[in-house]
Design a protein that fits this description.
The complex is a heterodimer. Chain A is 39% helix and 25% strand. Chain A contains eight helices and twelve strands. A ten-stranded mixed beta sheet of chain A has the order 1-6-3-2-7-12-11-8-9-10, sandwiched between helices. A two-stranded antiparallel sheet of chain A has the order 4-5. In chain A, helix 1 runs parallel beside helix 3 and helix 7 packs parallel to helix 8. The longest helix of chain A is centred in the middle third of the chain and has 25 residues. The N terminus of chain A is likely disordered. Chain B starts with 44 loop residues before the first helix and ends with a helix. In chain B, 41% of the residues are buried. In chain B, helix 6 runs antiparallel to helix 7. Chain B has 28 helices and 32 strands. Helix content of chain B is 47%, strand content 17%. The longest helix of chain B is centred in the N-terminal third of the chain and has 58 residues. The radius of gyration of chain B is 48 Å and the shape is elongated. By secondary structure, chain B is of the alpha/beta class. The chains are: A alpha/beta, B alpha/beta. Chains A and B meet through helix 2, strand 4, strand 5 and helix 3 of A and helix 4, strand 4, strand 5, strand 6 and helix 6 of B. Strand 4 of chain A pairs antiparallel with strand 5 of chain B.
């Protein structure tokens, strides 16, 4: 673990990445967020324990994507690659934090990515997760989605306003889509209040009202909107433990969980 | 043999023979305003016929070379004839270059009816403007983007479905799909966890084999799925392209149809527009991108040529405003100005070009008509003559830079499609160039079969004098001058005769006449005269001379001051006043030169000192050699010519050429031999042949006036005069003051046919005719000359014989 001095922090933004090659945008976004909130930035690189276990098997092999070919999954080589990726993530985080004068730390852990992320985050932390997921949602070889559109998912819970504020900060002047997915009583009042707030602080934000019955609805909305960052409160009624795992594993962009 | 001259019969020429006087009374008009303009140029019938023949004949190689001295009016006449003829001919086509979408280095040529080029250019400019907005608008439309997203989602769904199916299949067989840093892996599960090595070892061999087989099959299926991805992507890209093409086609079709309908009668244009449509469809992406901000390096925007330039039309030749066939005069016929050129522009330090930068040459502009070029200018420009000949031989214009042709540059350039050439070339130049080219350039004879030879003088007769008056009237009208009265016209005619150097001819050197009438008009205006009269023309002539005669004044001044030694009185042995002319280009004047001769015993040589020091020209040397031959044939029939003589132009420090001094030199030689003095009050000019006949020379008027001026400055005595060849009398157009002096008996001009007449005039003694017995009469100059030569011969024989003592001794 490495630490650098910076501005006095009032909270923590934890960014969790794994061997997905697109960790940089998540780290940059987390750093900006930490700077905006005068929070500490913590980085966590998770080495997938399943992969290392697999590499110990005698017939372990991987199918490379470019070019598509079957090759032996060598434990030594795999560890070297993971270490290199962790170092790259650390360097990116350090540079971003230094340039924004944010206090930072970084650590590497081995295990199951989502579990470690949820375990590492405190209740009040902001948790930015960018994981490779089990299967590619984006076609192999397609370019990384730009971090241009931020989507924030709100419901009628009290956390909505704080989540929106965090999303506004994370969007950093970019395009913001507010997905209001609440059908409960009293939702109309909250919706009106949100609309009023948005008109005042983010007149260009788009307020969408649509039902979100499960995580798949959120994933679909994020895909359709070509979303670059999804912001959701950990208190959101949809986010059960299982759903957080599902969302983190299948989302094709960083996920920001507001504690 | 001529009869011997009698000194008393050799009278001076009457004053009336010294100058032709043009009588104004012969004209029936009071002012040139009453005269009609000349329809044709004066006195150039032969040249005009040649020009009309060349213009009329439409055969290969019948281009025209117009020859004649400068200032004769060749170009004016040629342009006038060509414009008249061209006006009745059909307008030639417009020519355009357009992009060759298949090979941009070889732009394509479009031939359009006259006037249609500019219309098509406007239409293409409008089309480009429309494309600039219509294509990006169509490609940014919500409908198009939605369709693109559908394609993209379809691709993503296909991808996701394949992986999901595989993942589900794997899960059903207890295998988990894992992401690795560079791909995927299939991990066997046990109780929901990836099997570790210890657990695997505990399995039975059959179980291990089964797991390995399952994993192997799944891996193979996964590999096949991954292999399919590029194919799916290619299909998706193709669909996007096709969608973009369809959207673009829909957006541009009506724009192109409008241009096509407007040019439906021009198949070539329609074919080109089809090519434009294909290219727009193939490059709709670039069209879209071209509207975005230009790329930059280090914050500096790249100055790229707009992509849409490729659809513009380069109208090379626009004959919309041309009336009939074009008549073009190219005054700066460089290779590029004739053939055309391909310009380049700098783009990030590199020179680049395209079909829009093809510039026409004079051949393009005159194609279908006539091109006039000054030959000397053409030859002065490197490779211009070669380029013109190549175009005429090949019947097309191939734009090729000199750098390219000579392999001097390696800059990428264009090879535009050649323009078919149908042209009549008119070259204007002097005669010498014409004869040299005809002699030494085989192409010239092949291509320029017609020569129009402009004369510089016409016969002086009544009809021509009246026509000349109309020429003056024409110039007065054209130049908007004051009208000339008959005396003014008569004075112009007299000056024309003087310019011709012949009282029986009139110069038709137009530039000189135009200058004279314009300057006479000026002097008339200075005097406030409504008409130009004789006095104004004379003033103009005098002022012309005054402006140019600084050198003459200096020469005459040095003679008057005794620096240049010229006697105009008395008599000297072996010394005569010769006459020479200095031509300054726009002014010529004569002055006397002292010619002296010395004789001595020798071997028959006449030494030309000018030649010995290489200051004598070939013609002068020839004249001196003729003297030796004359002396030998006349006086040394029975004995060897035992003479050695030297001849020299005294105080001459420049080149001497011409044989006009040979009569004078022979007289000086005879004087030296006979020891008879020659009158210094006379000057002499003329050439002589081996038989002693005196022949015509040039510049007779200037020579006489030159000696007259020297004598007049010292005071005319009545004894002074000039001896000229009789055959030059018809050329006399002397200044009025010389004629007046002659009329008053204060100056004389003698015309002689033979050397004996000249000797008689210069010595005042009879030359003497050889009697039947063979001798010249005693006391005659010829007798004295012959006696001296016989004496020389005797002396030489005596020197040649051995002395008696020597003979005895031998």
């Amino acid at each position: 673990m490495t630490e650098q001095p910076g501005a006095a922090s009032t909270g923590r933004v934890l960014v969790v990445v794994d061997s997905a090659a697109e960790a940089e945008s998540a780290i940059q976004a987390a750093a900006r967020l930490a700077a905006d909130l005068s929070a500490e930035l913590s980085g966590l690189f998770v080495e997938n324990a399943d992969l290392i276990r697999l590499a110990d098997l005698p017939f372990a092999a991987e199918i490379a994507t470019s070019p598509p070919m079957l090759r032996r999954l060598d434990r030594e080589l795999l560890q070297r690659t993971l270490r290199a990726q962790a170092e790259q993530a650390r360097r990116t985080l350090a540079e971003a934090a230094s340039s924004l004068r944010v206090q930072w730390s970084f650590q590497v852990a081995r295990g199951h990515s989502t579990e470690i992320a949820l375990t590492a985050a405190g209740q009040l932390d902001l948790l930015m997760i960018r994981l490779a997921g089990r299967q590619p949602r984006r076609p192999i070889g397609a370019p990384q989605r730009a971090l241009g559109v931020t989507m924030v998912v709100l419901d009628a819970t009290p956390s909505a306003e704080r989540t929106l504020e965090t999303a506004l900060s994370a969007a950093s002047g970019g395009r913001l889509v507010v997905l209001f997915a609440a059908a409960s009583r009293g939702a109309a009042t909250i919706r009106e209040r949100l609309a009023e707030l948005l008109a005042r602080v983010a007149p260009k934000a788009i307020l969408q009202e649509r039902p979100a019955r499960d995580v798949n609805d959120l994933l679909q909305a994020a895909d359709q909107g070509r979303v670059g960052l999804l912001v959701i409160s950990r208190a959101n009624l949809l986010l059960t433990e299982t759903n957080v795992r599902l969302l983190a594993a299948n989302l094709d962009c960083p996920l920001l969980l507001v504690g | 043999m001529h009869a011997p001259p009698d000194p008393r019969s050799l009278a001076a020429l009457e004053a009336r023979r010294l100058r032709w006087h043009c009588d104004p009374a012969q004209f029936t008009f009071n002012s040139t305003d009453e005269l009609e303009d000349l329809a044709d140029i004066l006195g150039q019938q032969r040249a005009l016929e040649a020009i009309r023949f060349s213009v009329g004949i439409r055969r290969e190689g019948y281009h025209l070379y117009v020859q004649g001295p400068p200032g004769i009016g060749k170009r004016t006449v040629v342009q006038q004839i060509l414009k008249q003829r061209g006006a009745a001919e059909a307008k030639p086509s417009d020519w355009c270059y357009v992009n060759n979408f298949g090979d941009p280095q070889k732009p394509l040529l479009l031939q359009l009816p006259a006037g249609r080029g500019s219309r098509l250019r406007e239409e293409m400019t409008g089309l480009v403007d429309d494309l600039r907005t219509a294509v990006p608008a169509a490609l940014q439309s919500e409908e198009h983007r939605t369709r693109l997203q559908e394609v993209e989602r379809e691709f993503e769904s296909q991808h996701e479905r394949a992986f999901k199916e595989l993942e589900d299949k794997a899960e059903a067989q207890g295998v988990k799909l894992l992401r690795t840093p560079t791909g995927f892996a299939m991990a066997p599960l046990h109780n929901g966890e990836v099997v570790g090595p210890e657990e695997f070892e505990k399995l039975t061999d059959d179980e291990k084999r089964r797991i390995e087989q399952v994993v192997a099959v799944l891996q193979e299926e996964l590999r096949q799925v991954i292999e399919q991805v590029p194919k799916w992507r290619k299909e998706a890209i193709d669909k996007v392209k096709e969608l973009t093409r369809e959207t673009t086609r829909f957006a541009i079709r009506h724009l192109l149809d409008r241009v096509k309908q407007s040019n439906s009668d021009l198949p070539d244009v329609l074919r080109y527009l089809d090519a434009v449509e294909r290219d727009v469809l193939a490059h709709s992406g670039e069209l879209h991108a071209s509207e975005e901000a230009p790329p930059a390096i280090l914050g500096m925007p790249l100055e790229r040529r707009p992509f849409l330039r490729r659809y513009q039309l380069n109208l090379l030749v626009d004959n919309a405003q041309t009336a009939g066939a074009p008549v073009v005069y190219e005054d700066h016929p460089t290779y590029q100005n004739l053939i055309g050129r391909v310009e380049h522009i700098s783009e990030m330090g590199a020179l680049v070009t395209d079909f829009n930068l093809i510039k026409p040459g004079a051949l393009h502009r005159a194609n279908g008509g006539y091109l006039i070029i000054d030959m000397l200018n053409l030859l002065a420009q490197p490779y211009a003559w070669e380029g013109l000949k190549r175009a005429l031989h090949s019947h097309d214009i191939r734009i090729e830079s000199l750098g390219q042709a000579l392999s001097l540059t390696s800059t990428v350039s264009l090879e535009p499609q050649p323009v078919p050439l149908d042209i009549k070339i008119v070259l204007i130049g002097d005669r010498l160039l014409y004869y040299l080219l005809f002699q030494y350039d085989p192409d010239f004879a092949e291509l320029f079969k017609v020569g129009a030879d402009f004369d510089d003088q016409i016969d002086r007769n009544g009809d021509n004098c009246r026509l000349y008056a109309r020429l003056v009237a024409t110039l007065v009208h054209r130049e908007k001058l004051r009208p000339f009265d008959p005396t003014g016209v008569a004075c112009v005619l007299e000056h024309a005769a003087r310019l011709a150097g012949d009282a029986e001819k009139l110069s038709i050197h137009l530039r000189s006449v135009v200058d004279l009438v314009s300057e006479a008009d000026y002097w008339a205006s200075q005097q406030g005269s409504p008409q130009v009269t004789e006095s104004h023309v004379e003033r103009a002539i005098d002022e012309q001379i005054h402006r140019a005669d600084r050198l003459r004044q200096r020469v005459h001044e040095e003679i008057a001051r005794g620096t240049l030694l010229i006697d105009t009185e008395g008599a000297k042995v072996g010394q005569v006043n010769g006459l020479s002319v200095i031509d300054l280009g726009n002014f010529a004047f004569g002055h006397p030169s002292r010619v002296t001769a010395t004789v001595r015993l020798g071997k028959g040589d006449v030494i030309d000192i000018e030649r010995e020091v290489k200051l004598g020209g070939a013609i002068h040397s020839k004249g001196v050699l003729i003297l030796g031959s004359f002396l030998a044939s006349r006086y040394a029939r029975k004995h060897p010519l035992s003479l050695s003589a030297s001849l020299v132009f005294e105080q001459s420090y420049g080149m001497v050429d011409g044989d006009s001094a040979s009569v004078g030199e022979l007289c000086a030689l005879a004087s030296a031999l006979a020891e008879v003095p020659l009158k210094q009050s006379l000057a002499i000019t003329g050439s002589v042949n081996q038989h002693g006949q005196v022949q015509a020379i040039g510049g007779v008027n200037e020579k006489i006036e030159g000696f007259f001026d020297v004598c007049a400055a010292r005071g005319l005595t009545g004894e002074q005069g000039v001896i000229i060849p009789a055959s030059n009398v018809k050329h006399l157009m002397l200044r009025k003051e010389v004629v007046a002096a002659a009329a008053a008996g204060r100056f004389r001009v003698y015309a002689v046919d033979t050397i004996d007449e000249a000797v008689t005039l210069l010595t005042g003694m009879p030359a003497g005719e050889r009697a039947e017995a063979g001798d010249y009469p005693p006391g005659s100059v010829n007798r004295l000359v012959e006696d001296r030569l016989v004496a020389f011969s005797g002396l030489r024989q005596k020197f040649a014989e051995p002395s008696k003592s020597e003979a005895q001794h031998d």
